[in-house]
Design brief:
Layout: H1 9-13, E1 18-23, H2 24-29, H3 31-38, E2 43-46, H4 55-67, E3 75-80, H5 82-94, E4 100-105, H6 108-114, E5 119-124, E6 127-134, E7 139-140, H7 152-169, H8 171-184, H9 193-209, H10 224-234, H11 241-259, H12 267-277, H13 284-291, H14 295-298, H15 301-309, E8 319-326, E9 329-336, H16 338-346
Parallel strand pairs: 1-2, 1-3, 3-4, 4-7
Antiparallel strand pairs: 5-6, 8-9
This protein binds nicotinamide-adenine-dinucleotide and zinc ion (ZN).
Nicotinamide-adenine-dinucleotide (NAD) binds near residues 26, 83, 86, 110 and 149.
Length: about 350
């Protein structure tokens, strides 16, 4: 993680043949930087953002690797946000039954979250991330100079996941983010290298202990059951993912307070204050205000609960939540029923 680390790409690739998969917007905005780091290596430009994660783009990328004559010792280089990295990683997982890849994330969210942990996927008609593989990149080069062109909304999306990481990790990451928060609100400025590197290290530790999400890794889903329902109800793309996660963390804090009457040292208040200081909505009221929507109709509890019924991680009749109990302290796999959820979602 650092400014200019992309320049080290050639050294990482070494003598092997490489094929570059790059997000169209990033390619356009950073043409010079890419030329310097990639030289004339073959590349495929994929549709900017989430639309890269389709079966058609996957097929196109696989065929392009084949046409370029890449062998089993070839390496795929992904350059872009989480979407381009997810597509490129899955392409590498499938080509010749799995070849190496290197992730060069260009969004804050991809640096601290998507490029760490080895999950890759595309979307299917039936749902997001439904076709994928666990295939960790050989290396991740997070060149923070890319962040200079990131739109504020995308930055805020990354800040939502950064807040999640900090609450799950506690300790210095939480302290450092809390101190930096006022300067980051609005998403005009990128967090410092140190903060980004700490968040990467925190996620890497959790994932290393539980690569296949059998247990501890579930903690990283904090706020996500609610966030996915919010994104579903509002329509995907209407609100940046990490902003929905912030609202979801707010709801998870509400749920925790109801189930755990004596949280340590005003933790829920401090966690909500952190989200607010980052300029993120700490619940449904704030989210509705930000979007100029009427909460009762646009984010009705019934609609959100219906959306949760479709959640992959759900078990019969109940919903599993990750509850934030204190700095660096969560309880995973807490099963709650619909009346409870309705009360949380209605704020009653
Ligand atoms: N594999 C994982 O573990 C994991 C984890 C979290 C998220 N994800 C996936 O990541 C995706 C979201 O990633 P994201 O938030 O990075 O979004 P994204 O990749 O869709 O990028 C967001 C937008 O920013 C643009 N962009 C990227 N870098 C830029 C830059 N430096 N300057 C200007 N514009 C830039 C892109 O063109 C796109 O329009 C989702 O598909 C999600 O499922 C995967
Ligand atoms: Zn997320």
């Amino acid at each position: 993680v650092g400014p200019g680390v992309l320049a080290g790409l050639g050294e990482r690739i070494g003598e092997r043949s490489a094929f570059v998969v790059v997000d169209a917007r990033v390619e356009h905005l950073h043409a010079e930087r890419l030329k310097g780091a990639l030289g004339d290596r073959p590349r495929r430009t994929v549709t900017a953002g989430e639309d890269a994660k389709t079966p058609a783009e996957l097929e196109g990328a696989l065929e392009a690797l084949g046409d370029a004559g890449l062998g089993r010792d070839g390496v795929v280089v992904a350059i872009g946000g989480g979407a381009a990295c997810d597509l490129a990683g899955l392409t590498a997982a499938l080509f010749a039954r799995g070849i190496d890849w290197i992730a060069c994330p260009t969004t804050l969210l991809a640096m601290i979250d998507a490029s760490v942990g080895g999950k890759t996927a595309i979307n299917l008609r039936a749902g997001k991330n439904l076709a994928g593989a666990f295939h960790a990149p050989r290396a991740v080069l997070a060149d923070v100079e890319f962040l200079a062109t990131l739109p504020p909304d995308e930055m805020r999306s990354g800040l939502g996941e950064l807040a999640k990481a900090a609450l799950v990790e506690g300790g210095e990451l939480l302290a450092e983010l809390s101190a930096a928060a006022p300067g980051l609100a609005g998403g005009e400025r990128a967090p410092g290298v140190d903060l980004i590197a700490r968040a990467v290290a925190a996620k890497a530790r959790v994932v290393a202990a539980d690569e296949r999400e059998a247990g501890p890794r579930e903690a990283l889903n904090l706020g996500h059951t609610f966030a996915h329902a919010i994104e579903h109800v509002l329509g995907y793309g209407r609100v940046p993912h990490g902003v929905a996660v912030a609202a979801g963390i707010g709801l998870a804090l509400d749920a925790a307070e109801r189930l755990e009457p004596a949280p340590p040292a005003r933790f829920p208040q401090r966690a909500r204050a952190l989200l607010a200081a980052l300029g993120l909505p700490a619940g449904l009221d704030a989210l509705a205000r930000e979007l100029g929507l009427d909460r009762e109709s646009a984010l009705a509890p019934d609609a959100l609960i219906r959306a949760m019924r479709g959640d992959k991680k759900r078990r019969a009749g109940t919903t599993r939540l990750v509850l934030p109990l204190g700095p660096g302290e969560v309880r995973r796999g807490v099963e709650v029923d619909e009346p409870f959820l309705r009360a949380v979602l209605a704020g009653r």
